[in-house]
Amino acid sequence: MQSYAAQFPSLVEHCAPTPPRAPQWISFNEQLAQQLDLSALFRDAEQALACLSGTELNEAITPTASAYAGHQFAHFVPRLGDGRAILLSEVQGRDGLTYDVQLKGAGKTPFSRGGDGRSPIGPVLREYLCSEAMHALGVPTTRALAAVASGELVFRDTSLPGAILTRVARSHLRVGTFQYVAQQGDNDLLQRFADYVITRHYPHCRETDAPYLDLFEAINDSQARLIAQWMANGFIHGVMNTDNMTLSGETIDYGPCAFLEAYQADAVFSSIDKQGRYAYRNQPGIGQWNLARLAESMLALIDPDTDTAIKQVTLVLNAFPKMYEHYYDQLFAQKLGLYQISDNSRALVKDFLELLEAAELDFTLAFRYLSDPDDSRRQPFFAAAENWPQWHSRWQAELAQQGLSATELSQRLQATNPAYIPRNHLIEQVIQDVLETGKLEAFQLLLEALQNPFDERPEFAHLMQPAAPTERVTKTFCGT
Q: Per-residue pLDDT tens for 415-437?
């Protein structure tokens, strides 16, 4: 079943996956399969492998690739679309919500633009690990249902083993989809598309006096919250083009993404981000810029008079920084164990981040070690930070007003600040291990830790640590 293809045949192309030569399992996400009520369907491992490799599809599945446009590094491309992703079906999860099930790396589509539509195994492993880690951290995200080795070579700079990811999303509709629909010049199509987005993602907007303006505001809010969550987890998307920004407010496309180690506000890892457009610090501003492009696509829906429509969307856009700051202040205060946002809490967050940057301290461990009740890790970790004693005294004074015991504070902090993130060097080690040995033990071990990021276990101690100087990853790559 595909409601989107049924309602918008002009926005999709029907295309079948290209069956790989010798598919083999890499990983299957049984927990997610249960949430999607797919366990019975995939009970037979051979049938599941055939479906999720694109080798043999159920007769009820009519695969499609979706059209969309997008601003890529601020340059508009009118027709992009799913170049290596094929939507199999929509399913209803046990939560009553609708989800897309899509194969990524399953072969050419009408939007491949000369590409082969395949994926090397490295990007598949990266997206599997990162998307499942983000889910466990509580960040809205697409998820990985399965990864399958194709048994074929994919040719990029060199030949690499290929793989296929089964990606699950609330939908794959993007800001770029709205841009594509708007440029068709068909206001009826634009309105029907907006109604579909409302029905699928923001049904509360349907009953309001200004449903399309309220839809725009709801998307603004979901993006403000999402980007604040990225910042709170030290996540750098790396390629925040409008075609990589979902209307649902989920993180999508983990190509050149990275997580901060030593805190640096201007950190850039993406090899294609030459000017630092999508640096860690810039993500909120880029989010607002992308939403302005969405607003341009929605003007005809907001008001028949363009000037009036512009005034209305501008008011929403101008409110975005406040939306974002609300979520940012809330999340970072919680990371310090503070549940009342105040000028003091904001100052403590700002000064703590400046302290980390000056001393080049690890972002994730810095917050995690605040939870240590006996100071055994905290004191040596912050020894190099010149202003640590003064900041610590201010923090303790603020905490004292909440009346928490040391145990309660420690538990609160440990439930908020993860021990494990998908560190760049760990992902690269996993990829190299699979490429060199074909063994999946390192992948499975890291995945297990990332799926329970707040629970420290002795056997995962090495997965908490930043990269050694010889292990540091300074560039990440798309893998397309």
A: 999 999 999 999 999 999 999 99
Structure tokens at 480: 């397309």
Residue 155, beta-bridge partner list: 159
Region of 99 please: left (phi>0), alpha (psi -120 to 50) or beta. Answer: beta
* Tokens, residue 215: 């839809």
Beta carbons within 10 angstroms of residue 22's beta carbon: 10
Please identify which of the residues 100, 214, 243, 273 carries the catalytic annotation: 243
What six digits make up the tokens of 31? Answer: 């927990």
Q: Is 438 annotated as a binding residue?
A: no
Amino acid at 401: Q
Residues in Cβ contact with 145 at an 8 Å cutoff, skipping those fewer than 6 apart: 28, 29, 32, 33, 36, 38, 52, 101, 166, 167, 168
Tens digits of per-residue pLDDT, 54-77?
A: 999 888 899 999 999 999 999 999
Nearest to 57 by CA among 29, 15, 27, 96: 15
* Mean pLDDT across 271-280: 95
Amino acid identity of residue 142, one-letter, is T
- 105 in a known ligand binding site: no
| 343 has binding-site annotation | no
Nearest to 13 by CA among 90, 98, 108: 108
C-alpha dihedral sign at 110, 114, 117, 123: negative
CB 2 within 8 A of CB 64: yes
249 is in an annotated binding site: no
Q: Please tell me the distance from the alpha carbon of residue 233 to that of residue 454, in angstroms, as a whole number.
A: 13
Quickly list DSSP for 100-131. EEEEESB---TT-TT---BEEHHHHHHHHHHH
Residue 334 has pLDDT above 90, yes or no: yes
H-helix or E-strand spanning residue 343 = helix 343-359
Q: In sequence order, which residues have a C-beta less than 8 Å from that of residue 293 and are 6 or more positions away?
A: 71, 175, 179, 242
> What is the amino acid identity at position 95?
D
User: Would the pLDDT of 480 be above 70?
Assistant: no
CA angle 387, 392, 394 (to 5 degrees): 100
Cβ 140 vs Cβ 226: under 8 Å:
yes
pLDDT at 41 over 80: no
pLDDT, position 474: 87
Average the pLDDT over 331-340 and give the result. Answer: 95
244 labeled part of a ligand binding site: yes
In three-state secondary structure terms, 305 is: coil
**Is 174 annotated to bind ligand?**
yes
The residue type found at 72 is Q
Residue 167 counted as an annotated binding residue: yes
Q: Which of 313, 309, 302 is nearest to 190 (CA)?
A: 302
243 is catalytic: yes
Tokens of 414: 């440990």
Give residue 469's pLDDT band: very low, low, confident or very high (50, 70, 90): very high
